[in-house]
Specification:
single chain, alpha/beta, Rossmann fold, five-stranded parallel β-sheet, 9 strands, 20% strand, binds adenosine-5'-triphosphate, binds magnesium ion
Length: 245
């Protein structure tokens, strides 16, 4: 595929969904949160990340998405090294290839679920193109509705302001928004923390099913260790005290 203007070329065949190569990162004035850190998430794999509060889970996810940049080493998304990219090019790569479910979901409260789900396609032509089958037989609204249905959001809610939905419903809308346009990498930061454990497991299974169908890889942070057996890969980060020892 030849990349058009403003587009990022397609992912390198066989490249890991995300790869950390000798990454060292410290917040200003702080001790390193990660030091010479290596990680490779093969395409289609799902990684469960746990560890005590403050150990660096959210920092790791921000590095994986190119929101933060390391002081040493590099992060590659779908084989593309972020280190050599300008800020806008990194933003574009993230928009094209990464779906992010934030702990607080970050839905635009006055927009409807349908409008929230479509949002990533407004910023990324690649996501938009992947969301729409060739031949123009489907609209973005239809694709957003399909994802909302798959995540059990009934049609009566699709056009209401998202702020009126329950926490669990908002979380599923956030998942649909992260999945639209089949990003290669899905990142979820404690998305089940507001749910009791039964609902958390239901949500995770929905997410895993959708990842499989989209061929997406998943980085999933949770303190709920009962979810870990659902994953092919697990990573437990050391707490700040262990790191210093
Ligand atoms: N914006 C920031 N500026 C400075 N230091 C930060 C910032 N965000 C996080 N830190 C520090 O980096 C370390 C790791 O924080 P991080 O948020 O990644 O931990 P976490 O494992 O996600 O914790 P939690 O389970 O509480 O969400 C902590 O010591 C924290 O104080
Ligand atoms: Mg965190």
């Amino acid at each position: 595929m030849v990349a058009g203007k403003g587009q990022v070329s397609s992912e390198e065949a066989g490249a890991p969904a995300v790869r950390f190569e000798g990454v060292t990162f410290a917040w200003p004035g702080g001790a390193p949160v990660l030091s010479g850190f290596d990680l490779s998430l093969p395409a289609g794999e799902k990684l469960f990340i746990s560890g005590p509060s403050g150990c660096g889970k959210s920092t790791l996810l921000s590095l994986a998405a190119g929101i933060l940049t390391p002081q040493e080493g590099d992060v590659l998304i779908g084989g593309k090294a972020l280190g050599g990219l300008s800020g806008p090019a990194r933003d574009r790569l993230r928009g094209d290839r990464v779906g992010y479910i934030f702990q607080q979901f970050n839905l635009v409260p006055y927009l409807s679920p349908l409008e929230n789900v479509i949002l990533p396609c407004r910023f990324s032509p690649a996501r938009r193109a992947r969301a729409l089958p060739a031949g123009g037989s489907k609209t973005l609204e239809e694709e957003a509705g399909r994802l909302l249905s798959r995540l059990s959001i009934q049609e009566g809610l699709w056009k209401k302001p998202s702020a009126r939905l329950s926490v669990g419903q908002q979380q599923r809308v956030a998942a649909a928004r992260a999945l639209i346009g089949r990003p290669g990498l899905l990142i979820a930061d404690e998305p089940t923390s507001a749910l009791d454990s039964g609902l958390g497991l239901d949500f995770l299974r929905l997410l895993l099913r959708e990842c499989d169908e989209a061929g997406a890889s998943l980085l999933f942070v949770s303190h709920d260790k009962s979810l870990a057996p659902e994953f092919g890969m697990r990573l437990s980060l050391p707490g700040p005290e262990e790191r210093a020892a």
